[in-house]
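Lab notebook page, bench 4
Experiment: in silico fold of construct C2
Operator: M.H.
Input chain length: 186 residues
Purpose: comparison with the prior construct
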Amino acid sequence: ESLALFGRTQELVGIVTHPESVGRERIACLLPNVGLAHRIGPHRLNVRIARTLAAQGLVSLRFDLSGIGDSRGSTTGANFLEQAIVDMRSAMDYLSGEMGIEKFVVFGICSGAANSYQLALADHRVVGVFMFDGFRYPSTQDRLTDIFARLRQMTMANRAIFFATKARLGLTRLLGKSSASIDASI
């Protein structure tokens, strides 16, 4: 493993995990930080992934985005997502310059999943994205699935309270009154 300083003014900090020999595919994995946690990832997950990938012949770079962990904050004035894309492109540029790698897979958790997705849309060098705990499209089916999952975990008494509360809220909206003015015996 080796320290990587990269970005426009070398403001970004990362760790490159090198395999004993690089595979024929010449693909590297980017492991950006998760939310406000720094580059090691939750429960050192990024470290374990990087070392497992190295055993399989893949280079990886786990790194902190601007203003997180050891990376200095950006002075560009870009919003968080725009800056995350700039930072991840800088990581790819670094590995391209140092090792000649031009294909990348990005592993993102939570906000890292959203950032990874946006990077894949913005840069053709991204050939794969692993997104965990990222997007969730709030559809009617999604809401119903969530409600049924919650109901399965409740006791019968709690289910009764749940339905009574929902009925009371529904009546409140329907009648346009405050919940305090609705007779509790309904």
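Observations: The longest strand covers residues 103-109. The radius of gyration is 23 Å.
Next step: discuss at group meeting.
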